[in-house]
Please model this.
Amino acid sequence: MNFLQTDILIVGGGVGGCACAIAACEAGLNVIVTEETDWLGGQFTAQATPPDEHGWIERFGSTKSYRLFRENVRKYYRENYELTEEALNNPVLNPGNGWVSPLCAEPKVFLQVIEGILGKYTASSQLTILKECIALEAENEGDYVNSVTIQNVTGENTKITAKYFVDATELGDLLPITKTEFVTGSESRNDTGEPSAKNEADPHNCQAFSVCFALSYHPDEDWTIEKPEKYDFWKDFIPQITPAWSGKLLSLTGLNPRTLEPVHYKFMPNNEPNKAFAGLWTYRRIIHKDNFKRGIYFSDITLVNYPQIDYMLGDLCNASGEERARMIKEAKQQSLSFIYYLQTEKGLKGLKLRPDVVGTEDGLIKYPYIRESRRIRAEFTIKEQHISAQARFPEKTAQKFQDSVGLGYYRIDLHPSTGGDNYVDVESLPFQIPLGALIPKRVENLLPVCKNIGTTHITNGCYRVHPIEWNVGESIGNLLAFCLSEELTPRQVRNDSEHFQVFQSILMKSGIETEWPENLNLEEGDPHIHAM
Model:
């Protein structure tokens, strides 16, 4: 057993964990970050998913540091890639010209930028990063966590004591071992009063997760993979969900999430126009070969995160380690089966799996793309009626929170679930992040910074994306610095108006926006407006 001591232990090096570490280090604290994979960055990197963002993201509606991070990604391309003159001079360069986001880029570039930001803190030993580690157990005393023991891939254990602990894991793994009260799955309508909630609660009803991958296309070559072991199962798989799916999941026919009407997905590698909803190939394309000088790329590279790879047959949140491993293995077979389907059934044998892009041997991402986690039982829980456009009509913003520590905007977007639900897709309004949703009801020195905040199953669907997770992490990093300097608890900061006003002013000075501008034009917030 090894022993370490620090001001803040952040378990999980994803988006929220990294943002929290940056803010805490900037405030002068000593920080340890542990990460399950060998890549920091979570959704950006190990899960290889370009950021889902709103239409105002280049100007406002996120933190200053998040926008700087995005600009540093563009800067990396300008300084290290042979771009065309047009791309080089484009102030809002989108390397992939994917229509899901104005910044679709390679996981390795996001990783380089994140590590570059953290590098100055690791160089001074203010920040320690321990990769390929999981949290094993914790010691508590009353309402406080005293230590967390982590284990690395060799089986070596390290006991870490800290003043504060941050759960930045993708599935809220620190919550059960620290005895922090939490909820999983879907609440009942009776519990929350939410119009989109089910009549009965189901703790095993979580959104599907996905094992994503990158592809390029070479029409004169044959890159057909070996037939996946479970292909015969997946090629005939029909999701058992309500309302019913359109047919077999491995198909280029699916459902419109907003209307649940059948839709035929366009999929034309290297041959789709650069506009919103042009097709699946351009949806999350991370390299558009036309942005680079002739001969640099002979194909685009696209990131596959489509409905066809949504794994609905198991709930990771309530699974044991062995069960998780089995589900992820099955999800990998599902993803490989979709590739094989496209190569053999659709005649696209030139589709090439790209392990070099995602940093793995098998070409599938390092860690599943997680949409839903354990969630703390919080001082305040964000519900659908706080943020849905229908519930708030005719308002242009969601309910205002006096304890706002940030902003976000994304539709309430739930993928098909392990409990048999089809898409739930509800229009939301620009919303705030209330501090009450980041504070557990009882435990005093553990805070969440991932998808484990005080949302419901429904509202998790719009608080789960990259810029919001970054904002949560950054706000918590600042909060813990404030608490330690003023000898206060997070709960005291939130519940004392004078303390909170001082803290909120610190956030605003650091570039964290807490209120939306007046007279917003909601059409400008459309996440695909840049690609129209």
About this structure: The mean pLDDT is 97. The radius of gyration is 22 Å. The CA atoms of residues 233 and 334 lie 9 Å apart. The longest strand covers residues 157-167.
